[in-house]
Design a protein that fits this description.
408 residues, alpha/beta, FAD/NAD(P)-binding domain, D-Amino Acid Oxidase, Chain A, domain 2, 7-stranded mixed sheet, 12 helices, binds flavin-adenine dinucleotide
Amino acid sequence: MNEKSDAIVVGGGPCGSFSALTMARKGMDVTVCEEHKEIGIPAHCAGHLSLSGLRRLGLQLPSRIIQNKLKGVVFWSPRGNHLSVGFNAPVTCVVDRELLDKYLYNLALRAGVQFLLGSKVESLLVESSYVTGVEIKSGNTKQTLRSGVVVDAEGCPSRLLRQMGMQATNRTMTVNAVLAEVEEVNELDMDTVEVYLGRRYAPGFFAWIIPTKEDTAKIGLATTVGNPQKYLQRFIQKHPVASKKLWRSKIVHQTFHPISLGGAIPRTYANGLLVVGDVASQVKATTGGGVIFGLLCSRIAGRVAYEASQRDDYSESTLSRYESMWKREIGLDLTVMLHLRRLLNQLSDSEIDRIIDFGVRLATRNILRQAGDLDFQGRSLMRMMLHPSILIPVTYFVASAFLSSLRR
Ligand SMILES: Cc1cc2nc3c(=O)[nH]c(=O)nc-3n(C[C@H](O)[C@H](O)[C@H](O)COP(=O)(O)OP(=O)(O)OC[C@H]3O[C@@H](n4cnc5c(N)ncnc54)[C@H](O)[C@@H]3O)c2cc1C
């Protein structure tokens, strides 16, 4: 192994591998440290991704990674009313997250990236106020690795970032999620992802059913309070709509992981350091989706790291370009989604029922269909607000949330 590489990446998740790939393709010498012995395991993600996002990233995934393609979404209110939004062609896909991670890892390997598996980064090395490398532990062996720049892609819950004294993700808006793969599900619509709103089943977030193949789905939910597994049992057994589909289902695999919904962290760079993906909370606060935005930011991080390497200048003033570039690309949307999440969290179940009813009556789904890019929800929402059939329920939603917050 080289004594000093151009870049060290912490974490072999999608964001780590993608930033490493971007740097290696530009000729940089890159090492990725991943604490697990195998890439993609354990997987904690439902893998629901927009097709437009994958196109934007230039990723043409092999068919073996894609479990299903979906043409729409149905929102269920707590009382069991629904608003469905369907498209003529698929707009999203469900990927096998283990295989996606392995795919990105293999692309990076082929581009010349060196992966140290089973190597946990215990701390970042800081010298003269610059991050200059990492301290790793592999088995019983400890080692110091040096580099021009370190890309922190350690994911949520951001242990190294906290160690550095940098402001990490807003814990009050972190939800605890459970994801389960289930078989023998009844009445699955293979074209549609189902979103179940309401405090009784998923306070602070929502529950979902994502069909993968006949009778088989990924289900899950996240909550701000309590044990997500208990909420999942209640959802499976008691939800007026979901229980009819899930009552005889079998859970074949289950995982737990936090999702950071608090908006991006205030600073994503320092001397010798770039922070990407979940650890930077580059996550859509409305849906918890972080793969597409995380990969977009990882690509930017890789390009900025390359520019810095060309100038041999890894100072924060050079690396700050990363933050201005990612904010230009997704900053507005992240902010709008954060406000939407805060408003959603204020609503009672009966208010959600009324908003869904309202949306159905005003044929809101026809307008939602024209929403445009599913990832860039901030821009899409602003465009749609020009329509009275969106403006009225949105105004009602904002007013209800505001009044609820006053009552609390
Ligand atoms: C239940 C659930 C469902 C989700 N569903 C979706 C979805 O449908 N669509 C979507 O877009 N997003 C979804 N997400 C979010 C998505 O999983 C994340 O946004 C995405 O995984 C972020 O990628 P990442 O590379 O930043 O972090 P991670 O995928 O968490 O990868 C971080 C990697 O770093 C490694 N690591 C951590 N610390 C160290 C260390 N000290 N040393 C070495 N290695 C280390 C970890 O082992 C891991 O491999 C979901 C999340 C959850 C919890």
